[in-house]
Specification:
about 375 residues; 2 domains; 17 helices; disordered N terminus; disordered C terminus
Length: about 375
Amino acid sequence: MKKLSDYANSSYIQAYNRLNGRNVRRKIVVYVEGYDDIHFWSSVLKPLETEEYYFEVMLPSRSSLGHGKRVVLSNQLGRRLGNYMIACVDADYDYLLNGSTNISQFVCNNPYVFHTYAYAIENLQCYAPSLQGVCTMATLNDHRIFDFEAFLAEYSRIIFPLFVWNVWAYRYGEYKGFTLSDFFAVIQMNDINTYHPERNLQKVQHFVNAKIAKLQKRYQQARKTWKPLRDELLEKGVLPEETYLYIRGHDLFDGIVAPLLSKICEQLRRERENDIRKLAKHDTQMQNELAGYQHATAASVEMLRKHTGYAASPHYKHIQNDVQAFLHNISMTKTEENSNFSGDIGTERHNNLGFSDGSATKRHNTSGTYF
């Protein structure tokens, strides 16, 4: 049997806020896709809370284990969104598809849906400038023995043309011929050589060139549409050196960055342990120091999931700018809302952000650029 809360919508939360008094902080319910998303979106939203509004981040259902974007953006829940109930999701390819599918339209155009701009939260967790910090957190050794930024930038430039092909396949209905899995099968890197990573990159370059040649031969109709799509992606802020932020998130996290980080952290641990062995005056001191060090370190994958270094990324800041604009707009309606306090509290103002039903377009998507 469904609970009353299962039927709650933005108007319901609005009425709940009013019953608590006019000067009490108003709750905004935030639905996310899964457990990991709760931590990420809380880190995004909590710093933006004001004296007027606060956020409560949760999964879309308390009566089942269903989760994922399709649950969050289902027809039933989608109609319930409003000023006091929003959805925060991974962008996937929906942002890049620019409204060419129903769910892409919903993600790009609904003023109550916020997304990551990068493919998923895993991509932001792998934000290159933050990876050295993750290594330091995991190993307590800040020695820079690998240039994550240069490596991922070069990797991104190599795969960018094939990435455009993959987006093209999804934009023009040819995704069965070149799926996300097919794409990753070409660009994956097994057992990255941390001393000579250029060897891995050379292999990827070879596989990418071969795949592009096959796609050009198979989809000759793309001659008219591939370059305009590439230009469109560039205008959206998809920089060739940041392509890694837009490929499928778990492919990047589990298939490339986590294994690479694990190897680097293992080298850093051995380095620190060797220092302890060299500096110890006797065996007892050495064993105590090694035990203390090993107890203080952590698994690199755990740190990769829990760090917040990605907060310095333009994508993260762009999300926060969107939310701040949203809060500003609903705050502007507070006086009107209070003046109508005695009216029908079940009536939702769908036009609080200046958009009409069926044609709502997020303010931050109107320019077609990132920053």
